[in-house]
Amino acid sequence: MNRRGVFLSIVAIALCISCLSEEQKREQANKSAIKDLENLDMTAIDSYPLFDACDEMITTADCFYKNLHEVIDQKLKSGAVPIQLEKKDSIYASITVSKQGRIQYDSIFKSAAAIDKDQMDALLKSRLHSFPVIESAIKSSRPVATTYKLPIIFSPVDSLKH
Asked: Mind listing the pLDDT tens digit for each residue in 132-152?
């Protein structure tokens, strides 16, 4: 065999081996990705949404919930609540933060028996809108939408005077 034939044979073998190794690399990458997905906990986020007042270096769920409660409290205090309560009661509202950072009231998740759920839901829908846009929650370095069950406590007006 001449030099040219030997050279072409070596090149052909090298090409075959490199094609196989690329295929093997792809298969290994796919297997690794599938394994990572199986081990990924989709019930937990890496970081909570951020309000401007939260420090992203030390932020915790506490800062997010504190700021969300303050915003909701301001919106509910913007006018009289046309609901009669005999004692302090609570509801749990479902609130979603989209992956674009938009906050939205969804519905009442749970309410005390003394609270008219339909009337309270209508009130919350009328008051809980136009939230500030915040930074969304992060999971695996990507923004994700999250939903929270937020307790809201209502006190009778007479009990606030004491």
From this structure: 999 999 888 889 999 999 888
E strand residue ranges, 71-117? 89-97, 103-111
Question: Which H/E stretch holds residue 146?
Answer: strand 146-154
Please check whether residue 152 is in contact with residue 90, taking contact to mean a CB–CB distance below 8 angstroms: yes
Which positions ≥6 away from 46 have C-beta within 8 Å? 137, 138, 139, 140, 141
pLDDT digits (tens, 9 = 90+) for 28-82: 777 777 777 666 666 788 888 999 888 777 667 888 999 999 999 898 887 776 6
The number of CA neighbours under 13 Å toward the Cβ of 147 is 9
Sequence-ordered alpha helix ranges (H) in the chain: 3-39, 61-76, 117-127
- The CA dihedral of 95, 148, 75, 66, to the nearest 10 degrees, is -160
Check if the beta carbon of residue 92 is closer than 8 Å to that of residue 111: yes
Give SS3 for 66. helix
